[in-house]
Design brief:
Blueprint (H helix, E strand, L loop, with lengths): L3 H24 L11 H5 L3 H28 L5 E2 L2 E2 L2 H55 L1
Antiparallel strand pairs: 1-2
Helix pairs in contact: 1-3
Amino acid sequence: MKSVASRRGQFAAVAALGVLLFAAVYLHTDEPDISHDSAWDAVFDSRVLVAGSRLLVGVVIIYVLISVAVRARRGQWVRGAGPVETDAPAQRFIDSSDELRRQLREARGTIEQLQERLGDSARQREELLARLGGEEDRTRDGG
């Protein structure tokens, strides 16, 4: 279990990284040129708001991409992305599909075993017929 000091250190590191990212985005954001016809235009005429919006969109995109990559590695990527999960019918369909694939692998193994047994039986039959045919020839020749 992580100690409180370790968690505080991690939080401080994430907060510092967030401040640095915000500063970098802020410095690369130009002043918006919006005429102040409404209160909304005045709100969006802020360099800080535009930089924050860009940073937020970037962080959300990165979060979703990382979440999808992690779920794909675990074999769960179809089940959700980020905090969004698929519904129950889709889960049942995915689970039944996985079960059918497993059954198909087992059936292929059984088919291979049966084909080997059939080949062995056919060889034994041919050997028996050859032996019986040889004995008939000997009885005819000897009789």
